[in-house]
Each structure stands twice: as C-alpha cells, then as structure tokens.
C-alpha cells in the first residue's frame, strides 16, 4: 500500500513538472513573438522619424575610399576581392603607383593627388589603393575628403614574411626574381649575425603608414609618431582590420559600405581570394629569435599599435555585427520633432 502511495506521488510530481516546463516554453515563445511584434511596430513608426535625403543615391555615387595598404599584410587578397566586385557593383578600382615605390609623396603631388581624388567625378564611386602613407586631406584644403580603410598585421609576422618574400618570392608571381634571390640565410641566422635585413628598425613601417607624411613619422622609435598613428587610426579611418581576421574585416565593410562591398563576404568565402598571395619557403623563427626581437623598443611600439588596432576593431565589429538581446539589429530614429 505504501509503494502505491509513493508511485502516485511520483506520478503527480512528474505531471506538475511537465506542466511547468510546458508553460515555461509557452511563455518564452510568447515573449519571442512579443519582441518581434514590438520590433515591427518600431520599424513602422520610424519611417516617419528617420531622415533620408533624396540625394542618398547621388551621395553614394560620390563615394571615395582610400586603402593605403601596408606591404605584407594580406592586402593583395583583399584588393583581389575589390577587383572582382567592381564591375558587378559599378565602381572603379585604381592603383596608386608612386615613382620608385616611395611611400611618401612630395608636397606638390600631395596637393595634386588630393584635388584628383575629390574632383575626378568620372571615376566615382572609387576605391584607391597603394603603398602610401596616410594623407590628411583637411590639411590640403579640399572641400571633401575620402574614407580611409586599412589592414594591420602582427609586426614580427609581417617582418618575417617580408624577409623571405625578398628571397623566395610568392605564389602570386612565382617567376619574378626578387632582389635578394638566392640568399639562403634564414631569419634566425640573420638575427644571430646581427645583419641589417632583420634589424628591428625594418619593422618600423606600420606606425609610419598610419602616422603620415611628417618627417617625425619615419623616425624609428618616435613616440610622437606612435601617438599620431593611434589618433589617425581612430579619427580618420572608417575601419582598420587585422590580417588574422580578414573575413571579419570584409564582413564589416560589406555592412558599412554596401555600395562598394555588397556580396564581398560570400565571394571571399567561395573563391580563392583568401590565399591569393603567400610567401614561398617561409620558415618560422625560433623562440630564442622571437624573444630577442621582442626586447627591442621598435617591436614594442609596433606591437602597441597592433594591439590598439585589434582592440578597436573588435569594438567596432561587436557594435556592428552583433545583434541586440531581442535578436534584432540596432536601428536609430528621430522623435519629439518640433514644431509639427
């Protein structure tokens, strides 16, 4: 009799648990429906409270983006995506070729370039790309200025890649003979012998590219240059990605600038652009070499810029790509507009 009573209590308890779970599921389902309806209601109300000028399409067609690409940061892979999309998305891609591959323009060319970029309406919208330092258009008196984008890479990885690139080339143009072709000295051996090709001063490139055309920018170890590079990165660049997160960089650009980069993420995933240019016969440095390089002030400052850029990119990415708790993307609208 006692066992029957226990079975009856257990059965009742199971029924209660099932009922509770059912109602919890129903509450969650109804809350989800409520949030969706609430979002649709907000969307319908914002149509009259958002301001979309009638010239939006014209403004989009006036868009100019400059990608002042740092060497050996994966820039060829990214530019390859842009060239594949330009015909489909109806924009121009232009390569900036400076005499002798110089990274800094003369003063008269700075002015001419700024005028070309802002006034050459026949090629707009456009993406300009080239290995050149940041150029402040406000300083040159232009009435408008372009949007800047860029990629940055871990400084030692970039230096090692460039070291072997000069000796072994890459899979993009495998038959092109580089200036250090035939040199079999490894990066480890170079560091051990203290040779100039692996001098930490050669790592001083990403800071100058973001710093700009000032003489101080190109002085290795300049703290002023580092702070200027950080300020420019935040104040003058729409987005700066990192080579190690190329896909996220492209996805952010597609979300922020669909006029140029619509379809870029899918194209990158389904094409060979993710590994368009790889340095041949690249050897990873030993731990001893890494520790030796990391003792230099140049590495510390270049790495500080990289870490700063990475943190900022993650912040931008989170705000742009991650949805709100109710599962919808962030929107904005206007209200309390007076007078009516």
UniProtKB/TrEMBL annotation:
Keyword set includes Transmembrane helix: yes
Listed InterPro entries: Heparan_SO4_2-O-STrfase, P-loop_NTPase, Sulfotransferase
Keywords: Disulfide bond, Glycoprotein, Golgi apparatus, Membrane, Signal-anchor, Transferase, Transmembrane, Transmembrane helix
Subcellular location as annotated: Golgi apparatus membrane
Glycoprotein is among the record's keywords: yes
Transmembrane segments: 7-25
Family: Belongs to the sulfotransferase 3 family.
Name of the molecule in the record: Heparin sulfate O-sulfotransferase
UniProt source species: Loxostege sticticalis (Beet webworm moth)
Lineage of producing organism: Eukaryota, Metazoa, Ecdysozoa, Arthropoda, Hexapoda
């Amino acid at each position: 009799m006692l066992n029957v009573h226990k079975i009856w209590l257990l059965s009742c308890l199971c029924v209660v648990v099932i009922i509770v779970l059912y109602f919890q599921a129903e509450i969650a389902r109804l809350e989800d429906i409520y949030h969706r309806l609430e979002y649709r209601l907000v969307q319908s109300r914002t149509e009259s409270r958002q301001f979309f000028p009638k010239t939006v399409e014209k403004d989009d067609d006036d868009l100019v983006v400059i990608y002042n690409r740092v060497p050996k940061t994966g820039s060829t892979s990214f530019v390859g995506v842009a060239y594949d999309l330009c015909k489909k998305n109806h924009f121009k891609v232009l390569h900036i070729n400076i005499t002798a591959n110089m990274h800094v323009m003369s003063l008269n060319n700075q002015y001419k370039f700024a005028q070309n970029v802002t006034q050459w309406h026949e090629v707009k919208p456009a993406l300009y790309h080239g290995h050149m330092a940041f150029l402040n258009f406000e300083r040159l008196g232009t009435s408008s200025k372009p949007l800047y984008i860029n990629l940055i890479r871990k400084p030692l990885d970039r230096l090692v890649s460039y070291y072997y690139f000069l000796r072994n080339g890459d899979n993009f143009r495998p038959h092109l003979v580089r200036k250090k072709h035939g040199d079999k000295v490894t990066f480890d051996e170079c560091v051990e012998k203290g040779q100039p090709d692996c001098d930490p001063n050669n790592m001083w490139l990403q800071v100058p590219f973001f710093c700009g055309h000032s003489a101080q920018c190109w002085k290795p170890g300049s703290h002023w240059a580092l702070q200027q590079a950080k300020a420019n990165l935040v104040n003058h660049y729409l987005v700066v990605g990192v080579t190690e997160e190329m896909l996220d960089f492209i996805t952010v650009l597609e979300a922020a600038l669909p006029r140029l980069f619509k379809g870029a993420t899918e194209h990158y995933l389904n094409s060979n652009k993710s590994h368009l240019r790889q340095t041949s016969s690249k050897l990873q440095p030993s731990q001893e070499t890494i520790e030796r390089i990391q003792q230099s002030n140049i590495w510390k400052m270049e790495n500080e810029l990289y870490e700063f850029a990475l943190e900022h990119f993650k912040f931008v990415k989170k705000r742009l790509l991650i949805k709100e708790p109710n599962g919808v993307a962030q929107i904005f609208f206007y209200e309390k507009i007076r007078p009516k």
